[in-house]
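Annotators were shown the component list below and the corresponding predicted structure, then asked to write short factual statements about the assembly.
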Amino acid sequence: SAVISQKPSRDICQRGTSLTIQCQVDSQVTMMFWYRQQPGQSLTLIATANQGSEATYESGFVIDKFPISRPNLTFSTLTVSNMSPEDSSIYLCSVLPTGTSGNTIYFGEGSWLTVV
Amino acid sequence: EDKVVQSPLSLVVHEGDTVTLNCSYEVTNFRSLLWYKQEKKAPTFLFMLTSSGIEKKSGRLSSILDKKELSSILNITATQTGDSAIYLCAPFEGGKLIFGQGTELSVKP
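Structure shown to annotators:
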């Protein structure tokens, strides 16, 4: 498995501002992902964070709104830009550890954002 | 379009009951199916299933995959209040997990 630390765990943000969420893993991982979970909804994949190159975004998500960085194999950031109340969600970092026999993906504790 | 459907959406039982949660999926490049338990924020991993008909067990929880029927079930025996959570199934397809809407289980004392 992998130990995943996300910061901040919770924040209240003003409309129109941007916030960057950090995800740190205690070991090198093959893949890192960012998910969003809106209130009462299931998890939706935002993008796959690629080391050293641009993230791969899912339909409905764009780089201008959710810029992602992954400078190395253990760290990634997700920025939620120009926030609106509709962006109030839990944002979850998840990883596929290197050497995992199979496709077990682990999740960080999540970052709960409330936009007012 | 890929689709994952879980049933029931919610379930209320009493301690000691046995429950069966269902997951059906339609994905194009299926590799495996994962079950997670979500209590507060982060989903915690329960099982990964890759082969049909092979039951995986962990204490009172067990799960099995049926690739022919494109489905999986999660069983919880002798439920406890600590089992109250949302249970999520997610096929791993094309390098990503596709989540169902979850089953919200509530176990009453």
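Statements collected:
1. Chain A has a mean pLDDT of 92.
2. The radius of gyration of chain A is 13 Å.
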